[in-house]
Every structure is written in C-alpha cells, then in structure tokens.
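Reader question, answered in our methods column.
A reader sent in the components of a multi-part assembly and asked whether the whole thing could be modeled at once rather than chain by chain. We filled in our standard form and ran it. Here is what they sent:
COMPLEX SIZE: two components
ENTRIES:
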Amino acid sequence: MGLIDLLTRAAGSGAHVLVAEVPGAFRERVALERALHRMCWCIAESVADADVLAVVGEPDEAFAAVVEHVWAQMSEPRVRFQLRDETDAEALLSEAHEQLRSGPKHLTETVLRRGFPPSADDVAHGHGDYDSDAHDGHAGHSEHDDHEENGDHGGGGGHDHSAMMPDGIPLAEGAEDRDGLEMDELHLPLGPVLAHWPAGVVLRVTLHGDVVVDAEIEQLAAGPGASSAQDDATTRAARLLDAAASVLALAGLPAESARTRRLRDRCLDGELGDSSEVARLGGSVGRQRVLRWSLGGLTVTERSGGSEQLHDRLMNLFDRARAELDGEAPRQVVSGTQALLELVRGRELATVRLWLAAMMPDLAQHELSGAANG
Amino acid sequence: MDDSLSLAYVVPVMAGLAVLSLSVAGVSAALDARDGGRAFRTGLTIPLRETARLLRQRPRRTVSADRLLWRSASSAVIPLAVLIVAFVPLGGHALVDHPLGVVWINALDVVAWAVMWLLGWGANSVTGLVGGYRFLALALGYELPLMFALTAPAIAAGSLDLAEISAAQDGLWFVLWAPVAFAAYCWGVLGFSVRPPMDPGVGTDINGGILTELAGVDRLLVLSGRYALLVAGSAAAVPLFLGGGDGPLLPGWVWVLVKTLVLSVLLVLVGRRVPTLRPDKLLELGWVVVLPLVVAQDLVVSVIVVATN
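And here is the structure of the entire assembly that came back:
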C-alpha cells in the first residue's frame, strides 16, 4: 500500500461535516449528529473546514440556492448528500466515507475555490423570483449566472467591475459608530447554514467592527415534506436541551456542551425515565461561577420593562426541559422576530450568537406555527 | 553566543517540538473524545488523521485576499515557535545562548500579534477580520502582565540570560516565590497561542475567526502552529520558573522535556474548564486585577533580592 493510499484512508476517517438544516428537520439533524459522532467525525467549523455537505430535510428553492452557494465554496475533495429520513443517516455517512476514500487519488483540477458568504441578493434571489429581473436593482445581474457556472459564484450584487468594486465586491462604506468615530460598515449574513443557529433563520447584519448596528431578519420556509404536527413533550424537552448545548458550545465549554447533547440524545430515545438527570446537569452548570461571570452583563430589556440575563435564560432552558419531562404545563416564552431585531441592535456579534442560540426552541415553534398558517 | 549548541542540534530540537506538539494535540483530542462519550484512546490518533485530511484538502483562496500577507502569516506560526524554543537552554545550553534571552522571548511573543492579526486581515473575510480585532483586544489585556511577569525571574537572578536564570534557581524554583508572575506568564502563553480560554479570536461564534477561510495545508500550518506555540511557551517557562534542567537521576534535557510536556498538558486542562473570555471581560481582568498583582509580585521579588544580598 502506497503512501497516498495510506494518506487517503487516514484522511477519510476523520471528515468534517457541514450541516445545512432545513426548518422542521430537527430530529433528522440530531440523528445525523449522532451517527457522525459514532464514526468519530465532527461538525465543520466553517465552509473552508468542511469535506462533506449534509443537507438535512427537504429544502425549498430559496434554501437550495443557498446550499448551491455553499457547495461552490468547498475545497476538493468534497462530498454532499441529502438526508430525508433519520434512519438513513448512518448509511449516507458510510457512503460519503467510501466516496472520500475512493475519490480521485490525484486531484488535478486547477480551479481554486473562491469563497465569501452569500449576500442578501443571493438569498433573496432564490426566494420566489428566481429568474425574474425583480430580485435586485443592480445592473449586470445577468453575469451572475455565468459566475455560478464557473464555480466561483458572484457573491455580491453588482458585477460591473469598476474601480469601486475590485473583483466585484463593493468597497466598504463608512459610517459613524456609537462613539462618533468613522468606521467601515461591513455586511454579513448569519445563517442559514450555521452551527448552533436556529434552522432557516437568516440574519443580515451591518457591522461596525464586531458590533451589530442594524439587522434584517428572514425566515426561510420549512421544506415541502416537513410535518406540521406539534412536537410531543419529549421532542420539546430535546429541543430545549439542544439549545442549552449550543449556548454552552458558543460560550466555550465544549465538555459541558457534549454532556448536554448526550442527554438530549437519550431524551429522544426515551431513555430518561424521569427528569432527575436534567435537573442534576442544570444544577452543575448553574454552579459554575466562571460561566456566570463570563455571561454576566448580557442582559436584554423586555417590553414589559423587566430585564433578562442570558445566564438566567440558560438555566431556564434546563428548567423548562425538566418541566416538560415531568409533564408540567409547557411555559410559553413568546419572542417574535420583531423583538429579536430590537435585541440584536447595538450588540456584539458573540452576544447575538449566544442570544439566538438561547432563543432557538421558541423561534422554532414560532416558525412552525407560521408555516402551518400559510 | 560561544556556548550555543552546534547547528547539528537544530534537527533534533525541531523534531522534539513536533513530537511534543503532536502529543499535546493528541491528549486534547482524547479529552474531547472522552467528554463526547467515546473511549479516551480513540482521540489520541485524531491529530494524525487530521494532518492527513488537511494535507489532502486543496488550498482555497478568497476573492481579493491579500495573498502575500495571508500566506506569510500562516507560514510564520511554526517558525515563530521554533525561534522561541531556540533560546531555551536544554540542560546546559540552548541552540542560541544569548545574554538577552528573556528580551528575545518577549520580542517573539509580540511578533505573534502581527501574525494572528494578518491571518484575520489577509483572508478578506468579515469573520476573519472580527477574529483579528478580537485577538488584538485580547493581546492588549495579556501582554503587559506578561511583560511584568517576565521581569520577575530576571530580577531574581539578576540576569537576562536564560541559562543564568535557570542556574540561579538552585533548589528553590522561582515558581515558588513568584507564583503570581508564573500564573500571569501562563496566561500570556495561552493568549499568544490562541488556546482556550483565551481564544475568542478563533471562536465558534465567528466560525473560527482568523481560521474561517483557511483550508488544506494553510489550515494545517496554523492549527499545528498553535500547539507548537503552546509547547514553546511552556518550554520557555522551564528555565524561567521551573528550575530548568534541575531534577534527580535523569539528564537535564530530559527534565526540560518532561516539565514542558506536563505544563503544556496542564494548560490544556485548565483551558477546558474555563469558558471563553470575551475581550471586554478579559481587559477588565487583565488591567484591573492581574496587572497590579504582577507589579506587586515584582516588588516582592525585588525586596527579597535586596534583603538577601
């Protein structure tokens, strides 16, 4: 066995998977995470880091456009698949493994992947009016398709290669920041292909440094195959634990996050006889003084005039999961998208990610009921 | 400079750095595996598999990237670690036995500022830029305490030569009478190697920040370089605080290796227990708490030195 064979085999045994979760495919995503965890694979941290792109659920046109965009940015060797049913996860992953291993030994393609995140236009582009001229007001939009065919996608809107747009990217505009200093304004879409992020949510933020000064929110619709049935108590509890695990991962506690995820998995399997383990884990997380200190100061003011701490919200997630498992009446926390926009303005990017993760279960319900209504 | 080891030792020193970095990465991955509910040993080989994966992955570039700066930054991380190790006395002598060794170590850790910032800047990506900004903010928090921490052993030994500092700790290691300086130094090591909890610059919340757009060999160089910097920082702590090659039975250079490995693993363990320190929290901690403590520590060391002479 040659060196290249050995390298290829070793390389395939620890692939990184980028998960694109379509709204309403929570159980499928969890099944995928568990299957890849068993194979000692892991979740990719960014597009550049990924070998495998896993689409979970049935994407609609808008979501499919984003997936294509992400796929175009991935480095060779790469594999993609779509997971429709949670029982297929293992089979699809071993197939991807096989493809990575048996793929071309010598990668001869000279095209370098170029990547930057999808812009507002790209997401809106696929949303309903895919081929109409109405999707943006930019001249030269027809070049867009040429770019995509070349595999190097035209990320931004506007492709007249003038001096103000080197390589088709408009230069950053300046604006005054909160201290009155002139800052570059940067535009960054968060989601929908993003770990620890509510499924299908696209938050297009305008940044001064890493402070969000403005944001627009869009909720991509659940796929055509998504069931509109209400979650049962176990699934609701699992969603709450999943959100808690995400908050812990974003806060930089991977060990606690992994413990919470395992509890989520056992909860979905129906292995949690009572809620004592959830209460115990919540208690041990709550006792971490350093976590309380590091999350301290992340407060939101509610419309009612009260305020909420992120740490309390995290504890609340554990508590609500326990209540769900105990069969107590579910406590509703209403957080519409409007409130969300008020929440993110003027906050640092890390804070926005933490709050969005903490609000995941409530946004998911909001979105599902929205989809059911039309 | 006359006491420097001959150039023939460059290869074993670099090999040693590589083996130690791989071991520390292996332990870190194994701890991850254990937390995830898998066997500890399944994680040990992950760095090797990850190396193979990244060697095979094609490089990638972003639109309008500053390729010169970006590529030079990703290739500079490992040489930076090698240069730090070159000043560390292994038993008797270092690759470069310089009378101003401490100053060199300090100068090199400041080079990390440029390297990490350019990694974020060069990619022409928003998250990379945010990661770079975060690293700089963080560096403002840890660098001054680190500089004052480095002066404690220099004052105690009355020398800036690492070999002399190491020899001055005859029986009583500086970590024992300058524990605060030692802690601040370790904090700085976690900072310039961008390891948790000093890693908001490569945070999950910004998709890896300065690492976001790196793929293939470039990514490999930076990821392994971060471990190499951690090991190099720990290696420099050995002559500064941990008695150098002082120890029973075994030859001095073995003790240097053992102490370096133990300190690196301890730093990994501590990093796993503490949540990521966001720059605002960290600056508060660095300037309001740690800096005055380290200055007080320097004062205590100076008083002891004056009193005992």
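What stands out: Chain A touches chain B through 64 residues (CB under 8 Å). The two ends of chain A are 58 Å apart (CA to CA).
Send us your own complexes using the same form.
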